[in-house]
Amino acid sequence: MGGSGESLARPPRRCSEPLIPPTWAETAESIAYDSATWPPPIALVCGPGNSGKSTFSRLLLNTLLKRYKRVGYLDTDVGQPEFATPGCVSLHIVDKHTPQGMHSCFFFGDVCAKKDPKAHLNYICTLYDYFLINYHQFEEVDDPGKAPVLPLVVNTSGWVKGTGYVTLVEMLRHMSPTHVVQIRVSPESKNLPSGKFWSDGNQNTPVNVIEIHGTGNDASVRSVSTKREARIMRDIRIISYFRQCLPRDFKISTYTELRRCLASVAPIGLHLSTIKIVHLHCQ
C-alpha cells in the first residue's frame, strides 16, 4: 500500500463539477414521472466505458428519490462501483442521496469481470431475483402489510465487447426492465447495437429503449492518467471500508498509521464449523 510514511491516497482533483446535459435530465424525469409506468420502473443503464453510465445512474437515482421514498440500486460494476467496495456486486436500498452500507452483496474477488464471467452473471441475477421477491411484488398492492413496490436502477460496467457483450445480453434477457438507457459515444465502433439488441423474440414484456449521447472526452482516448485515477479511487474505497473498524477519533494520515491501527483491532473468533470456504475463479 505504499512506503512507511506515504500519505493515504487522495481523490484525483477535478477542475469542475460534471455538467449534466439537458437531455439527460429530461430522460431521468421521463423515467421517474411517466404516469403510465406501473409498476415503478426498472431502468438499466448501459454503454461503453467512460461514457458517463455511473453519472447518469446517480442522476436517475436522485430523480427517483424525489418521487419515491426508497429506490433500489443494483451495481454490477466490480471495478468502479458507485457505493460499494471494489470487487463486489451489490444491491442497495436507498432512502437518501448518500446511502450507508450495502443491503446485500456478493464478493466477486476481483476488479475485472473477465476473471469469471459466469460467476459475475450469476451474482447479478441472484441479487436481481432477490430484489423482485422482496421489493417488487405488486400482486397484493392493496394489502396494508405488504412492503411498497420500489423502482430499481441497474448500473452496468463498460465491458460491452466479446464476452462482455454476451454477459450483458444474458443479463437483459433474465431481467424485465421497463427502460433501457443506452449511452452512445464517438467513435461509433465503441457503441452497442441500437434498439433491443438483446431480444431473441421470446421477450414479451414491453421495454422503452432510450439512446442518449455521452459527455466528456472521446471514448477512444483512455489515457494512463485516467487508469491511474481509477486505481486511486479503488484504493480510497477499500481504505474507507476498513476505516470503519476503527474509532472515529483515530487520526490517520499515512499507510503506516492505518496498518498499525488495523493490526491493533481485536480479532473476532469464529468456530471453524461456521466457516465456508469458496474458491473464486478456479481454472
UniProtKB/TrEMBL annotation:
Keyword Zinc attached: no
Residue span of region Disordered: 1-20
GO biological process: cleavage in ITS2 between 5.8S rRNA and LSU-rRNA of tricistronic rRNA transcript (SSU-rRNA, 5.8S rRNA, LSU-rRNA)
Record GO terms (molecular function): ATP binding; polynucleotide 5'-hydroxyl-kinase activity
Domain Clp1 P-loop: residue ranges: 47-243
Keyword terms of this UniProt record: ATP-binding, Kinase, Nucleotide-binding, Transferase
Superkingdom of this protein's organism: Eukaryota
Similarity section: Belongs to the Clp1 family. NOL9/GRC3 subfamily.
The protein's name: Polynucleotide 5'-hydroxyl-kinase NOL9
Native species: Ananas comosus
